[in-house]
Model the fold of this input.
Amino acid sequence: MPSNLSLYFAKVKLGSAATEMSMQIDTGSDLTWVTCKSCDNCPKSTGLGIQLNSYDPTSSTTASLVPCSSQTCASLSQSGSSSCSEQGSQCTYRLEYQDGSRTLGYYVYDRFAFNTIFKNSLTGSLSAPILFGCSTHQDGELTWNDAAVVDGILAFGPQALSIVSQLLSQGIAPKAFSHCFRGDGVGGGILVLGQILEPSIIYTPLEPSQSHYTLKMQSIAVNGQSLPIDPAVFSTSTGQGTIVDTGTTLVYLVPEAYQPFLNAITAAVTGLATPFQSVDSFCYHVLVTARMLLSGAWAFKRLKIDIVLKDRIFAYDLDEQTIGWTDYD
Done:
């Protein structure tokens, strides 16, 4: 994990060749994808200190391509997740992220293997067939940001294509998962598929019928002072909402919340730090305390330009449609 980007990734083994892939954990997307061996412009190195690998479906006896004529491709096409130029060709995808970066490729079924642990000891592995994307082209930040280059994205979003939804549909994992990311700057932590027993977790409900894990924000406070922000600007009825996304480094606020927040931060650090001009705003080398009040729970965060969900257990209970968290070392 590079401290400037707070990028967390997990290692999984893919296919009969058990190719080890380093994949970013992303609760904000639903399509899992890996770099394909045939990718024409994918990065060959990374600043994360890991070896990059690519996936070759022809070297895996458990791999199965998805043709355009298949029912799977027809279903994906209806949901807007695939396209086909010819009936005899492979079922393809095109995915664009909020920052403008893109990945293009084709769909494959193959087995993903995850390590299993008990009381911090490795006990074996869990293997399951997963539908994912084999990326043959990438652009944008996926290629030029050396500190963010990995072998692919491990998608844990709430939609049917995500890896947690596929494991649930196969009866392999319950409708729950959690993560705890270390915050000491060297990375590490744990990603759990299934329920965890932690009595101190406080839960807040998810907003219904949303395409992401969306919470109801009620207020923001800086140094104990609530900010003059109308709660209606956070409402999903206005097309907003507060999304929990491990794949996004920055915190984004709507303009009606951003300016009061920026004013409060500026007032809080006056005399403690010297601002310096960033691309489109001022930055400060200082930490202040902020609280975001959600429906049913408080989220306490160290506030910087980038906020990461570190040194806390975050539990996603998709049966109960809640997210909970608690501090954890």
In short: The longest strand covers residues 121-139. Residues 296-308 have pLDDT under 50 and may be disordered.
